[in-house]
Amino acid sequence: MTDRACVLVVAKAPVSGLAKTRLTPAATPEQAAEVAAASLLDTLDAVLSVPRVRRVVAMTGDLEKAARSAELRRMLRWFDVIPQRGNDFAERLANAHHDVADLPVVQIGMDTPQVTPWLLGSAVVSTLAGDAALGLAEDGGWWALGLKDPLHAMALRRVPMSQPDTGSRTLDALHDLDLQVSPLPVLSDVDTIEDARRVAALLPRSRFAAAVSVVRQPVS
């Protein structure tokens, strides 16, 4: 059966001291890496359940040094894994879309382990129905970007990333290309320990919730 789109996960190897550093000092660097690994694994699980899509991970970092390295390598056998390339995050995002440009693309990260196959499937449908789809994040960024023509990701090169207005500026950049942009549900990115605990409460039987539960609670 022919793939209708590509679901692209842009990911960073969850290496202790490099992954989810904003979870410290509540979490140790090792615990933060475990949370990041669990988030990525739960995200990949959701992608695996989306039908009729090509599954791609654009990866950066040393997977051999990552938390849950063996489990991640087993999971990634079901994905096409490509390297990220570029001098900054915006460039790496644009290049990742370009590298899978044979199909419409729905791109997500690894900071929304609450994503479901239904949400991803809906993002694919919205992308195919118009020109683009954008899922904003509660912190002002975005968690998902769908592009019927992946080469339109060049617009991201002009958008400052990891800023409070990244989401709105991404939407403006897409509108500047005269694209019809369908809105996706707003989700919470996991950046802080408060984010992590709030999202984990929604996913009681997940890898993510188990990893977050190990992080000590603040002393009252």
Question: Main attributes?
Answer:
alpha/beta; Spore Coat Polysaccharide Biosynthesis Protein SpsA, Chain A; 7 strands
In terms of quaternary structure, the protein is single chain
The largest sheet, given as strand count, sense and whether it forms a barrel, is:
7 strands, mixed
- Approximate strand percentage: 15-25%
Low-confidence stretches: none
The secondary structure category is alpha/beta
Please give the number of β-strands: 7
CATH class bucket: Alpha Beta
CATH fold call: Spore Coat Polysaccharide Biosynthesis Protein SpsA, Chain A
Strand order of the largest sheet: 3-2-1-4-6-5-7
The CATH superfamily turns out to be: Spore Coat Polysaccharide Biosynthesis Protein SpsA, Chain A
InterPro entries: Nucleotide-diphossugar_trans, Trfase_1_rSAM/seldom-assoc
Pfam family, one: DUF2064
Protein name: Glycosyltransferase involved in cell wall biogenesis
Please sum up the structure shown.
The chain has helices spanning 29-48, 69-76, 89-99, 117-129, 166-176, 193-202, 207-213; strands at 5-12, 53-60, 80-83, 105-108, 132-137, 142-147, 181-187. With 220 residues, it is of the alpha/beta class. It starts with a strand and ends in a 7-residue tail after the last helix.
